[in-house]
Amino acid sequence: xxxxxxxxxxxxxxxxxxxxxxxxxNNNPSVAPETRNRISExxxxxxxxxxxxxxxxARQQSETISxxxxxxxxxxxxxxxxxxxxxxxxFGYDLVLYGVEHADQAENYVAKALQRGKVDGILFFSMxxxxxxxxxxxxxNLPVGLVDxxxxxxxxxxxxxxxxxxxxxxxxxxxGHRKVGMLNARSxxxxxxxxxxxxxxxxxxxxIPYSDSLVKCGKSTRHDGFNRDSGxxxxxxxxxxxxxxxxAFFISSDIQAFGAIxxxxxxxxxxxxxxxxxxxxxIELARLMRLTTxxxxxxxxxxxxxxxxVSRMSNPDMExxxxxxxxxxxxxxxxxxxxxxxxxxxxxxRLR
Amino acid sequence: xxxxxxxxxxxxxxxxxxxxxxxxxNNNPSVAPETRNRISExxxxxxxxxxxxxxxxARQQSETISxxxxxxxxxxxxxxxxxxxxxxxxFGYDLVLYGVEHADQAENYVAKALQRGKVDGILFFSMxxxxxxxxxxxxxNLPVGLVDxxxxxxxxxxxxxxxxxxxxxxxxxxxGHRKVGMLNARSxxxxxxxxxxxxxxxxxxxxIPYSDSLVKCGKSTRHDGFNRDSGxxxxxxxxxxxxxxxxAFFISSDIQAFGAIxxxxxxxxxxxxxxxxxxxxxIELARLMRLTTxxxxxxxxxxxxxxxxVSRMSNPDMExxxxxxxxxxxxxxxxxxxxxxxxxxxxxxRLR
DNA sequence: CTGAAAGCGCTAACAC
DNA sequence: GTGTTAGCGCTTTCAG
Lengths: 352, 352
Hints:
Distance between the termini of chain A: 61 Å
Radius of gyration of chain A: 26 Å
CATH class of the largest domain in chain A: Alpha Beta
Oligomer: homodimer
Shape of chain A: elongated
């Protein structure tokens, strides 16, 4: 088994001092070409590998970025994470992942991550953190980026939730629907609250009276209600309203929409003939299921989050930047926009 | 901003030597209770945080496990990763993630990861690595675990692909189908090859002649052909066979199955009335789409992978273990098994 | 250009 | 029990 070769071994072998070895290893120009060659030759021959942690200790930096993510089983996080990972490795950093079940848990991880020198920067995903943690972070002076959440003291990348909900709802109304309901996630989630606002504003702006009975949320609390069962449950509740039931719905996530669709199917409703639906996210299945939805540029958000974080790392005094992406309406079949068009006869709907 | 406080600061403040400080910080029992209290009090007051890399350098271990994953955009990896992450943090290790586009790239990362002391163990996902890399790893003497791939010299966790394919195909045949085809992924992928073998064996065992024309693979190479477009393309090819087209298919992944279903829908075929389908993976959408499929215990695989790796780390001479999970057949509607049962009238199929 | 030496912050062996 | 000291492996002055 390969013994651990250090710069001392190289130095001895090449007949130089360790300082010089270190220089060539770090491409420091002030080394005679000949010496340089000799040293790198030896290094290669001994298949030298630097000791990362010794370097990090001496250099006083970690070349590591960590991401704290509420469990990344969801497509949204996956996609963002993909962008993050791509950019992180492009910059040559390591990515260490902390999965938390819920924002509350984040605190433990924050403490871990705050260990001096451990990471050069942290990204928090969809994390509404208590003020105490926020100020801990702030005074730690560590570069921090927020994705899908906002706080005045840190850079953030987010999505215009209210705006997206507004667009989705308006689309439904423009299609002629007057009785439109909303399936929301739990109100503890900021995106959920914002989307509700957008929904409400759209209704009111179109002269349709808003009422709390128009909004339901399932009991399933996983992912703050952004889960399939929650959608199923909420829709079942709506169905129970009988003739009072809206015939168009804005649903706060695609995954809930799929649950809702299952409920609708079960009860014999057709989509979009009987019920029109618009989701939110544009996860991969949405395309598959022909779901009309609001697209969030997830991958891009990840990329930008890292770019921003890296610039802050190199320039801590940069002014704080908040970037908001606007979701795009992707019209497919579930909203019924194509119902009477020739291209997409309703009888061919995939949404049964 | 918090200055960096070291054990020297604590020692001075508490009027003791750094050795003692280190001891209480590491819960070394041989410290007088009173001293201990005083020290930990000071540590808390100064809100001391250890310097991870100094510790790692001194301890000569990293408390880090890394996972090399071919881009984890797929549900399969996500799920496995979820299990991995959960277990890793349970053991108190850090998880550093390396995303690679393809196995070939793995080599760079292997080199990075092999930097002395960098990680205590590595997990490779679905990675068919060149022998050169394999032996590099072997002689590095670093604990390594393979997930979804197998090699004699390392622990591995995998799925009985051939067996699963066999079961899936047999199920189709038992349902009365004689003309059954297969949509495969690219043959560079080991799982793909194994599933093909299972398919073939099932056919032959049931007295149905196998022919290469029964198997097709789309042109899309992303994820080795385990992608939606590939399924779509392959099915289109089958459809082009006209009356020669099989009326039942085993498809090597759910995601391909969805592509195939789209193609079928487009051409007016009904599922399962006209065409029966069995997929592989049991991703979340499979349930949603009522797809009959072979379930892989993804989360569990991740958990076990870490457990195994950790035991190897603490006991390097443990004999090499290969664990194979058997996929389970999950019968839903796409195979047509319920077509004539009362519970699930074919007219209610969601698979159009 | 290059060698020597002083850390980086912590652990652990060794005395007292 | 506790202080002292010698590393861990590398970077970075500081002379020369």
